[in-house]
Amino acid sequence: MKAAVLHELKKPFVIEEVERPKHSDGEVLIKVEACGVCHSDLHVAEGDWKQFGGITKLPLIVGHEVAGKVVEVGPGVSVLKTGDRVGVPWIFWTCGECEFCREGNENLCVKQKITGVTVNGGYAEYIKAPATHATKIPDAVSSVQAAPLFCAGVTVYRAIMQAKPQRGQRLAVFGVGGLGHLAIQIGVHLGLEVSAVDVADDKLALAKSLGAANTFNAASSNVVKEMRRRGSAHIVLVTSGSKAAYDTAFYCVRPTGTLLAVGLPADEISFPAIMMAAGEVNIKASAVGTRKDLEHVLALAAQGKLHCQVATRPLNDANAVFEEMRAGTIAGRVVLAM
Predict the structure, then answer these.
(1) Same domain, 263 and 178
(2) Per-residue pLDDT tens over the stretch 202-212
(3) Looking only at Cα atoms, what is the longest distance across the chain?
(4) 295 lies in the same domain as 199
(5) Residues 144 and 180 occupy one common structural domain
(6) Which residues have CB under 8 Å from 25's CB, separation 6+?
(7) Please, where are the H alpha helices in 251-317?
(8) 29: which strand partners?
């Protein structure tokens, strides 16, 4: 099969023929139809996250927003059949036995395997996956539309729900990229007044078209002043991987409000403790999502309430897409269509 293979960190992918994966008991073989290109893929390939240094396998096929069709079923599989369309998310497998799995937080499983990090991912024509962790895609959602929901969609959904949003509250989304443009739609669906912050006018125009009530260009306006004039935000969601975004976002949180950390800068972020205490500000982080979260997100998409802005590219363009991601020129999500 053809795959984009990372042989060395910080080096381009090699598009080459590799052996098709062999599935075993409890697994299915999936013919990949689409795989979203996530900024996390870039961080993994660049070796930006030191915490991943010891677990990233090489050579590696990255990609964790995978959608495709089951073509072979291994022994012991009863939940899926040949022809089913399924997705494979960041969390490839969880143990179901550790404390976090038992608490319903399988996304924090201490033994988890990670798609496109510890096991091969979806920048390829085929991928194998545990049948228990491959989630069915509703008929109403195409594979190209579904793929980004397996990371970008589920991540912002879980994050927003962590803040226990109430209809009429104000939500500020920092970064109108692959995650941010989906977060805006989820916020609108939940009845929140959404403000979008970015440094690109075209992305802000997209935010407006998706229902954002307010848009602010952080490069040309005083975002903190503008947000405070409107009462600041009950929920501030940072999807940007920029430390500067966090530095601004913190001061846009309403007292007793919540700052949601989703974007993952390579640099450390910090907030003044006295300001946190003075405003009783909550800081919460969110790690992708569970299979149950995924089902909710896919249901929203099937109902037409969540639509990903997608540009499709061939697998051979994987390196070019990474360059565009480094330059910050991608609006919405790029999906590699096989």
Answers:
(1) yes
(2) 999 999 999 99
(3) 61
(4) no
(5) no
(6) 74, 75, 76
(7) 273-279, 291-302
(8) 72, 128
Q: What are the pLDDT digits (tens) for 110-159?
A: 999 999 999 999 999 999 999 999 999 999 999 999 999 999 999 999 99
Q: Is 102 left (phi over 0), alpha (psi -120 to 50) or beta?
A: alpha
Q: Are strands 14-17 and 2-5 parallel, antiparallel or unpaired?
A: antiparallel
Whole-number Å distance between alpha carbons of 338 and 336: 6
The domain that contains 293 carries what CATH number?
Answer: 3.90.180.10
What's the average model confidence in pLDDT over 101-115?
Answer: 97
Q: In terms of Cα–Cα distance, which of 147, 149, 187 is closest to 171? A: 187
What is the pTM for the complete model shown? 0.94
Shared domain check, 304 and 207: no
Domain residue limits at 58: 2-151+289-337
Residue among 185, 212, 177, 208 nearest 326 (CA): 177
